[in-house]
Design goal:
Blueprint lengths: L17 H6 L2 H10 L3 E5 L5 E4 L1 H7 L3 H6 L2 H4 L5 H13 L4 E9 L5 E13 L2 E10 L1
Antiparallel strand pairs: 1-2, 1-5, 3-4, 4-5
InterPro entries: PAS (IPR000014), PAS-like_dom_sf (IPR035965), PAS_fold_3 (IPR013655)
Protein name: PAS domain S-box protein
Length: 137
């Protein structure tokens, strides 16, 4: 899924904000995410999944193609959807651009795993992304 990170309209992945520049440009950010042991996803402004790492596939038990086709509603435990919505709003609207929450994700086999989510807003070339790190609680 999304092995090629998004770029700005001119084709470069210029880090256009303080948050992204703290970590380097978007390809560098994606490289770090891909190598992370934490299950991590990147979502665009509409909430669509644009990138995830292998740790995310392992945590949830889906192969890459299956995970790429799922929506957040299919992964977040239905009783915890409100927690995710609140954390997303805090991360996208707050001046610091970050929020944490604890909730349950649903694995492919139907079992639930409690995780602590760390949500961070990054902006690259005028486009906002939400980076979500999931660590089993």
């Amino acid at each position: 899924m999304a092995a090629i990170p998004p770029t700005d309209p001119e084709g470069s992945a210029d880090a256009g904000s303080r948050a992204a520049s703290d970590r380097g440009d978007l390809p560098s950010l994606y490289y770090g995410i891909a190598r992370s042991a934490d299950a991590t996803t990147v979502h665009d402004e509409s909430g669509a999944l644009t990138f995830f790492n292998a740790a995310c596939s392992r945590l949830l038990g889906y192969d890459a193609d299956e995970l790429a086709s799922l929506t957040g509603h299919g992964i977040v435990h239905p009783d915890d959807a409100g927690l995710l919505a609140e954390a997303t709003e805090r991360a996208t609207d707050s001046p610091v651009g970050a929020a944490d929450t604890e909730l349950r994700l649903v694995r492919k086999d139907g079992s639930a795993v409690r995780v602590t989510l760390g949500l961070s807003r990054v902006e690259v070339s005028g486009r906002r992304y939400l980076v979500v790190e999931s660590v089993p609680a």
